[in-house]
Specification:
With 236 residues, this protein is mainly alpha-helical. Helices cover 81% and strands 0% of the residues. The chain has helices spanning 2-21, 28-54, 57-64, 66-87, 93-117, 122-155, 165-174, 179-189, 194-201, 205-219, 224-233. Helix 1 runs antiparallel to helix 2 (28-54), helix 2 (28-54) packs antiparallel against helix 4 (66-87) and helix 9 crosses helix 10 (205-219). The chain is elongated. 25% of the residues are buried. The model has no long low-confidence stretch (mean pLDDT 80).
């Protein structure tokens, strides 16, 4: 009873997570009404009440997961459609990777009800749930790092030249530049050489070159002037 309860609880958490973290408004009704009605209630009915009355776990599994299994397929379609709509305007290299990660996080969730329906066993269900949680945890840290970078850029009003802070900061996030790379780019804009930048930042000249090459690779440019121009003018 407890083991299956944990599986149903984890299965119920996934839609809530995607609704809150990714602002998928299409999931609101499912989170408020659908999950309690088609996931929590079947568990309470078959795995708690009926199981205590008949003690026949296999029979409860056979009939108790029919509704959750069917509903999980409906919910899967709703989630995938909402994710696709959420990312369709941001399918550059960076967000495309994030979108794939989100899809990969959804699939282990739906597999929980599939495995339960065909009585595969608790170990396989637990592994599926853990894989899903591992992926959404990775996404969480990834998004948290981006939020922290955005806060850093906004608090320090970081920009170069006459570029609006909003545009420059958006481009820095878009190309996934690090704080060190952004600082070096600011020095490049001021006309400092690699050696001068190394002296100011108290790092080696080779380290400065590596950061600049990383910035070139991320922005797909081959010169300092092209790097500055792209960060000042690129619009996503």
């Amino acid at each position: 009873m407890i083991a299956y309860g944990m599986s149903f609880l984890m299965g119920s958490y996934f839609p809530f997570y995607f609704y809150k973290e990714f602002d998928l408004k299409a999931l609101r009704k499912h989170v408020i009404y659908g999950v309690p009605s088609f996931l929590i209630m079947p568990y309470l009915l078959f795995f708690v009440i009926l199981y205590m009355l008949n003690g026949d776990l296999r029979k409860d599994i056979r009939y108790g997961v029919i509704v959750p299994f069917a509903y999980s397929l409906v919910l899967l379609w709703v989630i995938l459609s909402a994710i696709r709509k959420r990312y369709q305007c941001n399918r550059d290299d960076h967000f495309y990777t994030e979108e794939i990660m989100v899809y990969c996080a959804v699939l282990p969730w739906v597999m929980i009800t599939v495995l339960a329906r065909f009585e595969v066993g608790q170990l396989a269900q637990t592994l599926c749930a853990n894989v899903g949680f591992l992926i959404i945890t990775t996404i969480f840290f990834f998004k948290s790092a981006r939020r922290a970078m955005l806060e850093y850029l906004q608090e320090n009003a970081i920009t170069i030249g006459g570029t609006t802070p909003y545009l420059f900061q958006a481009n820095c996030l878009h190309f996934d530049l690090t704080r060190t790379e952004i600082l070096i780019i600011q020095y490049i804009y001021k006309g400092l050489s690699n050696k001068e930048i190394a002296d100011v930042m108290a790092i080696s000249e080779n380290t400065v070159k590596k950061h600049i090459q990383n910035a070139y690779r991320k922005t797909n440019v081959k010169s300092r002037s092209a790097l500055i121009y792209k960060l000042q003018n690129h619009r996503n």
